[in-house]
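User: Predict AI-2E family transporter's structure from this.
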Amino acid sequence: MPDTSKWLSRLTSARENATVPAAAAPRPRPAPETRTDPAGAVPWAVRATAAWSWRLLVIAAGGIVIGYAVITFQTIFVAVLAAILVAVLLEPVATWLRRVLHFPRALASLAAILGTLAVIGGLLVLAGRSIVDGFGALADSAQAGFQELQVWLTEGPLGIDDTQIEGWIAQATDQIEANSDVLVSGVANVTGSVTSVVTGAVITVFVLFFFLKEGRSIWQWFVRLAPRGARVRINEAGIRGWVTLGGYTRTQILVAFVDAVGIALGALILGIPLALPIGVLVFLFSFIPIVGAFISGAVAVLVALVDQGPGTALIMLGIVLLVQQIEGNVLQPWLQGNALSLHPIAILLAVTAGTGLAGILGALFAVPIVAVINTVMLYFTGHDKYPHLATDINRPGGPPGALEAAISASWNKETENDGAVVDDDSPTSAPDDEDDDPAATRPDATARPTASARAVGAAGPEDGEGR
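Assistant:
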């Protein structure tokens, strides 16, 4: 039998010599949940959604207020927009008159406006005379075409009786007589619209004169309302929006001119009357994207159909389609380049929304407004479409780095006009006659000019302005 005493003694000594592990430290009990911060219990996604929601509601409310103001003061709003579009075209003319012919600022602005009105008036007079001269022949052609249609309906494959045709004519006459009140009210509405157009035209010319004469000062007045830290970015974004607007407007005018000349020449070659009025109509409607070309082309084809029949109308339709294809696929992509950077879907939606909100005027202004907003938002998000403007001293709005000095000079000028005492070291503005040298406002890279020198340089040239 084995000796168990030794085995038991070994086991006992092993137990005595074994290290007893230390007891694990007790885990701290979690503190009771506090409810002092209710926002902490809301998930992050819900808080982010709520933050975006109230901001979007504020933006929507602001948009509604702006839309209501635009509808209420539509005549003034449209006049200002039209003045801006014309100012971006006439600003180079006014600048040339000041620099080359040394016209005073007011005289240069007035001469540019009067010259433009003279050109437009001359075109309208020529178109009016052409309409008067060709209306008689067109009416005779329309009457002859109607008689041919009547003969075809009675003696052609349809075999319609003359009595039935006369009954249709009598029904149409009765409908016109029954709706005479509607026609009279329509004439009254047209009269009111003409009055509104004349009023808007007068306001446009008045605002245009001051945009050309004091455009940069007006823009700087708006910029200085912003906080000091945001002024430079707002000014730079506005300059880029102005360049975009100028590129769009000049491109549209050139494209409209090519369309008008092409279609008018086609009508003239085919011997269609009213070729010049058709060209003027095509030129005007070309400023309405997408739908304008369709309407003006349809008018040209309709005149050809009435005057010379379906064969000539088909040829005229081919000429219209050819001109529009060249314009849409060659001219606009080549001329516009990156002036718009808008997708065709965005242009279509903008035109549709503008038409729904303000009719033909909305369709006219929708695309340039969207193009300017697109350029400004791209600049604010770090995507500058015109990086060369950062160093161009001849850019619209003045050379880079001269904004604050110009704003200081404008404040000082207002103080002087109010009769206040001005300190000798405060900025002073330069006379308007000293604004023809762009180098006068070039920032000095080697030396820091004094406050007075900066003010004189910045408040000097308004050449190349437009705003």
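Residues 66-165+194-225 form one domain.
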